[in-house]
Write a structure and sequence with these properties.
Layout (H helix, E strand, L loop, with lengths): L2 H11 L5 H8 L10 H15 L5 H13 L6 H15 L1
Length: 91
Amino acid sequence: MRIEAYNQVAQLYKTSNATKTTNAAAATFKDQLQISQAGRDYQVAKQAVAKASDIREDRVAELKNKINDGTYQVSTNDFAAKLLEKYNALL
């Protein structure tokens, strides 16, 4: 094996020159994140929904009062429609 040929190839490609790699490593870049206005609006809406209660206390209180007073009326047509809707969803 000829070592001289390797040295000539190394000189040709300048592989022994370490200053090029240090110069490339010295360059600093900062990562940046830009969120669109739609993304910001979505984030605000998501936070508002997360803070909101799942139970509508005013509606629950109203229905409890009607049930306790005996004035709560259920439409048989509405009840049947909901019952069939649930039944069809199970099929």
